[in-house]
# Entry
Amino acid sequence: MKFVADGMLGKLARWLRLAGHDVTYIGDLRVPANEQDDVLLERAKLQRRVLLTCDLGLHRRAKRAGIRSAYVESNDVVRQLVEVSKRCGQKIEIRPENSRCPMCNGSLKLASKDDVKNLVPATVLKAQREFWRCGKCGKTYWHGTHWKTILEMASRYNQIVG
# Structure
């Protein structure tokens, strides 16, 4: 699915990107605060994205304009993922082979050790077997210590949704 997220949902945007969803985050666009709502609505409509917002007024504006919108009430990112999956009727699964770059939303591609040998510390190169690179910003990813946190969050999500 494709989403556009308001400025209060940056963490949710990153997690949805990890789950492989195309998410435009208003915080990445450098839009003046007084223009953000209009930009969110325009992008949602023109690009057929689901608007994710914790602003009830913006959610209502979107609905009146015929724009698909999900009002996100929770402050906890796992509960936010549950809300989005329920409102959109789709389970969210985090798998590295389907992930997008959590920083810029670019596509991640599997990279060889040779591709990343000058981009990661030698200890990481020696310890890891799989690497992914973002085709947009060039950032390199691997199953480091953060991967445990990702798996724990995915487990919490799966326990809630069943």
